[in-house]
Design goal:
Peroxisomal Thiolase, Chain A, domain 1; 387 residues; globular; alpha/beta; 37% helix; nine-stranded mixed beta sheet; two-stranded antiparallel ribbon; homodimer
Chain lengths: 387, 387
């Protein structure tokens, strides 16, 4: 397998983009990534577009081709990929594969979603397309319901408290204050969290990521192309995609997502690294409790201690392993198809030493993107090429 | 690049499957492909699922993971890909890439769609997700409208007549009578075609493929795995994916789809073959006139002579180049995400000498799958491994 490098990145702010259509968001991010790289558009050999619900919510498919049109690319293969909330990560992994396998020398991954135009029942119905609707949807379960259940199990097994979980919310909302792309950053205290609306017991409003619009893009290149670029060299040391059960009853344990565990193991193997080598993590905190479970599944926090580490500040910048210095989904927002690529955007900025909420001496970063009830997962490890 | 072989195929009938949900259709086809190959499920390293509108029509995404669950596959990467009517072809190409690049030794491509449950306005709205809805959808244009326009241009430029186009309908509907999977095969004459309802002048009802449910699957393997299989060896000699404009105004010429022309050129190059080497073609006759244009774009019929060749029977079995011996989309049906893989299913049967409407001495076959207004295209060339 050939080495893969990030030559350019782009992102819109995450939030409400009421005046901008979905293609325009994706084209804006993609255009920024191409321009930054200095690579000619003629050199781009493949486009992968991560998107989840443009069909039901916007009535627009063929986004991969539409976006390639807008970017002025050639008659190259353009593919929309979907794996619920992991759609962006899957697009990134396929662009990375296109380079590592030698299918082409330059590939672009773009993620996009537009969700704020629809009312809550419509958005909820669209998000529930990520569930096995025959097995689980009929029970009336929604994603907040699933993660409320995860929380209760984690609390029963490990003693995780409301206060532990609130530490995650406070940290991510505060991290987001330094991120100009974040949608819902805030100085927030435990009382405000506790006073926010109850969504699915014990999850409250501030435990849930917002509904968002946004797009992000990454231009990936071979080593030879990377050497001619002026952007700082960041290498994709591992890019892994796995699956877990689509049905809740198919999961061996709801205190863990086996797709994450498998992806993390494979990513460490591929990169020749262990969890202790990771300088910071951007992970899939769709709900506050998810960060605690994910941090354990990724092996960067010992099993059962996600709540304690959050409470003790060990996942803050300056702690043992900073988690979500970008603000994560909780503060930054979650335009579903864009999220996995937005995590790469944040990670590349960190590895360039150019993040507005910089982790000191960040040399190796990990991203984690989880879809549905754990049905799809991607884990990537990126490193400064001098690290 | 490594050689890629077809080890197993499976397909449901195309038509109305009112009692069967979309996952069950896909699982049925995938299971048949795996069983036929004799390859262990544990060996499958990747799943690609082609689907277009399960989001808007069925309210179900994450189909790749759901289908892998049902097939009893491992924690492998499972990816839904979408490129409108070319979604199945794109899934096949990615499974083929997974083998040719060495990403894995066994990969499965499954295509599925379920469309008959919805009423006509709903299906039309869903199909229009394949258009650039800002640029073209607002004009009220639908796909029959587009192909009616294509027909008028072809008639004006090359003198193609109603009778020429009816020859395509008669041939494909008759071919379908020998295909047990076909939805709308018939003995039909020019008068019946002319008396069928006018859809978009000059297109009549029998010029249009039906709305269908169905699934098809192909298991692809490396040469080493293929040698251990008992199924007859069929090789993927070329698998190419291209894009064209998503907007009608972006096409240089509506008497041709440039994505098809580019894909065909690249496929012949990759296979080291020319159009005259092709023994038969399964192409994207979503409308009768499309077969005429596609046959010219693929280079198997001289430019402008698609109508004449059809009229003279040169595209029938026994003619210069049999086109759509399966009955094509017109007779077989068009469950959108399944179509591109259904074409592979038909082609493999021909190359095994086991098709119910066999082309004599078929050794090399070509498949062509076109999405949207020509925004996405795949062309594959398959050959008997002794050819």
């Amino acid at each position: 397998m050939r080495r893969v490098f990030v030559a350019g990145i782009g992102s819109t702010a995450f939030g409400r983009h009421s005046g901008t259509d979905i293609e325009a968001l994706a084209i804006k991010a993609g255009d920024a990534a191409i321009r930054e790289s200095g690579v000619s558009r003629k050199e781009v050999g493949a486009l992968y577009l991560g998107n989840f619900v443009a069909g039901p919510l916007v009535g627009q498919e063929v986004l991969a081709g539409l976006v390639a049109d807008g970017l002025g690319l050639g008659q190259i293969p353009c593919t929309k990929v979907e794996g619920a909330c992991a759609s962006g990560g899957i697009a990134f992994r396929h662009a990375s594969l296109a380079i590592s396998t030698g299918a082409c020398d330059v590939a672009i991954a773009v993620g996009v979603e537009k969700m704020t135009g629809a009312d809550t029942p419509t958005v909820t119905a669209a998000l529930n397309c990520a569930m096995d609707n025959r097995a689980d949807g009929v029970s009336g379960l929604t994603f907040p319901g699933l993660f409320g259940l995860v929380w209760k199990l984690h609390a029963a097994r490990y003693g995780t408290t409301r206060s532990d979980v609130s530490s995650v919310v406070r940290k991510n909302k505060a991290n987001g204050l330094r991120n100009p792309l974040a949608q819902m950053a805030a100085h927030i205290d435990d009382e405000a969290i506790l006073n926010s609306a109850l969504i699915c017991d014990p999850l409250r409003l501030f435990d849930c990521c917002p509904v968002s619009d946004g797009a992000a893009a990454v231009l990936l290149v071979s080593e030879e192309v990377a050497r001619a670029c002026s952007t700082p060299m960041v290498e994709v040391a591992a890019s892994v995609q796995t699956r877990g059960s689509a049905r809740i009853a198919g999961h061996p344990d709801l205190c863990s997502f086996d797709a994450t565990v498998a992806a993390a193991h494979a990513a460490y193997d591929m990169a020749g690294l262990s969890p202790s080598d990771i300088d910071f993590v951007e992970l899939h905190d769709c709900f506050s409790i998810a960060e605690i479970v994910d941090s354990e599944d990724l092996g960067v926090v010992p099993r059962g201690q996600g709540g304690i580490w959050a409470r003790e500040g060990r996942t803050r910048i300056g702690g043992d392993v900073p988690i979500n210095p970008s603000g994560g989904l909780l503060a930054k927002g979650h335009p579903v198809g864009a999220t996995g690529i937005g995590q790469i955007y944040e990670t590349v900025l960190q590895l360039r030493g150019a993040h507005p909420n910089q982790v000191k001496d960040a040399a190796i970063g990990l991203t984690h993107n989880l879809g549905g009830t754990g049905v799809a997962c991607t884990v990537n490890i990126l490193r400064r090429s001098d690290a």
